Amino acid sequence: MPRLILATLLAALVTSAAHAADRPNIVFIMTDDHAAHAISAYGSRVNQTPNLDRLAREGALFENVFATNSICTPSRAAILTGQYSHINGVTVFNRFDSNRMTVARLLQQGGYHTGMIGKWHLGSDPAGFDRWEILPGQGAYVDPVFYTATGERTYTGRYATDVITDLALDFMAKRPRNQPFFLMVHHKAPHRPWQPDAAHAAQFATRRIPEPATLWDSYATRTDALHENQQRVAADLTRRDLKLEPPPGLAGAELTSWLGTKPDSVTIVRDGKSVTLTGEPLTR
Description:
By secondary structure, the chain is α/β, with parallel strands linked by helices. It has two domains: 183 residues, Alkaline Phosphatase, subunit A; 60 residues, no CATH class. 22% of the residues lie in helices and 16% in strands. It is built from eight helices and nine strands. The strands form three sheets. It has a five-stranded parallel β-sheet, with helices on both faces. The chain has a two-stranded antiparallel ribbon with strand order 5-6. A two-stranded antiparallel sheet has the order 8-9. The longest helix has 15 residues.
């Protein structure tokens, strides 16, 4: 039987002369906006990821790999094309030209059954895929809408990660058995606003997260580009990020404004007492 390989990027893997039985199935799984050390195989002190660790242990673990453009949309274009951003035309959040040659097109031309499930975020419809079901733009965590080549569907009461996983499993279950397959599974999570499902919302509520050595880094000796970066814990987290409950009655623009504000203080309940946090204690 064809081997099942989970990998970060496999391109130009097959020639049209090869037989299907001799070619591996390929599943590419992409998650969004987390550091390498969010995975325990890379030394996480918070998360435990035993299945990913097993892949690293029994397969390969990249320890010295670099991204030439790590922003969301350009990185996806680079993965698809194997080209630098200035060559594939996607340098920031501009539209990807689906007429370009991609790993999906090459494998499809080589006899692979190809699929794309999840977050696409390239501004154009996927090409080179026999089946695709994608989130519009960033998509939503809860009640997500998915687009296909023929329409759209809302998964009411569902969580995006679960839907993407189920659709990926459905693709593999229904694939033609006389062809090898290539499947890209692109998860939305854990991209901002970091919204977990109900089953995992309180997973870290009673745990103390180790303080990273760089939490209070002033970037004084770093390049100017790093000083422009945002999403620092102390300076950039909004009420939405902190999962604060809005006052009753807020709606529309007022609610959006309230959620988008960076609070100077937050009141929490600790040991049965209300405690207002500001400054360094709020950051911690």
